[in-house]
Design goal:
This protein is mainly alpha-helical and about 240 residues long. It contains twelve helices and four strands, in the order ββαααααβαααβαααα. About 60% of the residues lie in helices and about 10% in strands. The chain starts with a strand and ends with a helix.
Length: about 240
């Protein structure tokens, strides 16, 4: 299993399973199916609504409508990855995701570069360029990934926003560290991800580095172990959010 090491904004190294060629091909095929379904639906609707007669009566307006309806096809990958947190519908089904190599969140610029170079990677040579570059590159990157500083990783099962940011609820719980008010949803999401990843992969050094960062940010000293401290912070933040 090929892994990719990504350094988060908390200066903690995380290892993820790389999305190999097979996963990416399957996601691309599924995306093609979704696009084809969209095209079929549009064509059927146009036939049902008598588009031919409309085109004959007003070609300019009809052509404009065709362009508008065609934009979701042309911009499918850019729009879906931008608004679905690095996933297209195909990637979501296969459970793979676009991430930045430097651990930051991919931005619009990254997704634009990936979409533009997709023409060379996949469309011009039937995916041959992407196939070779993903298989040969150290971090499973196609040309679009190399230009955008991204790669594609395997992720676990999908979770809700509550499961991603918040931790759990305990009846009559009293917040231990009131300083959790200094944290943002993004901070807590990173803490939760690194904590779970470090525990699952037996990486106490990651917990130590993360705990120190969080203590510094919150200006806290405690005798709790790194794991206990981080779990307490997550629990505190969860209840802080519910009590606001």
């Amino acid at each position: 299993m090929e892994t990719i090491k990504i350094t988060t904004s908390q200066n903690v190294d995380l290892e993820y399973e790389a999305a190999g060629v097979g996963y990416r091909i399957l996601a691309t095929l599924l995306d093609s199916v979704f696009i084809a379904v969209y095209i079929v639906i549009i064509v059927l609707l146009c036939m049902q609504l008598g588009f031919n007669y409309f085109y004959e009566s007003n070609q300019y307006l009809a052509s404009t409508l065709i362009i508008i309806l065609g934009l979701p096809i042309l911009l499918y990958h850019f729009l879906s990855e931008t608004f679905m947190n690095g996933q297209s519908l195909g990637k979501k089904v296969v459970k793979i995701k676009v991430v930045k190599i430097d651990g930051t969140q991919p931005g619009i610029g990254s997704f634009i570069l990936r979409s533009i170079l997709r023409v060379i990677d996949i469309q011009l040579f039937n995916g041959l360029v992407a196939l070779i570059s993903v298989a040969a590159s150290e971090k499973s990157q196609r040309l679009g990934d190399m230009a955008a500083g991204t790669t594609v990783i395997k992720i676990g099962s999908n979770v809700s926003l509550r499961n991603t940011i918040l931790y759990k609820q305990v009846i009559d719980y009293k917040i231990v560290f009131e300083q959790v008010a200094l944290l943002s949803d993004k901070d807590v999401g990173i803490i939760k991800e690194i904590l779970e990843h470090s525990l699952a992969n037996n990486k106490p050094q990651n917990l130590k580095a993360l705990a120190q960062k969080v203590k510094t940010k919150m200006n806290i000293t405690t005798t709790l172990t790194d794991e206990q401290f981080l779990k307490t912070v997550l629990l505190d933040y969860s209840h802080y959010q519910f009590e606001k």
